[in-house]
């Protein structure tokens, strides 16, 4: 550094830059965590349910509060995030709007047909359609994988969690 150049105020020895963004994120995380815990306290607990609907919001809310507090402490101790290098991002190329529109169309189709066709079929179409929109050319394999995942998730929700997803046209078969 030459004699005429000066260091910026943020890098002077003994003087630290206050990262308002990190403190703001920490405060937001703590507020969302507290809101989640308070809101979960109002959920009704069934007498036959051993876990109840409050457990997961309590865990998520407490986790948000803890992580927010740890972020605030790390920020106060001078920890600063490193800027993203963007190694996998080509900023000179434009967005692929055709792919985005294909994905939106597949998602809207799923939303529009899930009650009629049921989750097993609509979920399979969602998977296969998303794979097609992203460039896959193995349609039969994508449909089979989509069916396996959709039926598996349908049973996981229905049997494992006790949450009935709509069977649609497969009512009585699943």
Automatic annotation (TrEMBL):
The chain crosses the membrane at residues 20-43, 55-76, 103-131, 143-165. Residues 26-165 form the DUF1468 domain. Pfam families: TctB. The keyword Membrane applies. The keyword Transmembrane helix applies. Keywords: Membrane, Transmembrane, Transmembrane helix. This is DUF1468 domain-containing protein. It comes from Nocardioides luteus.
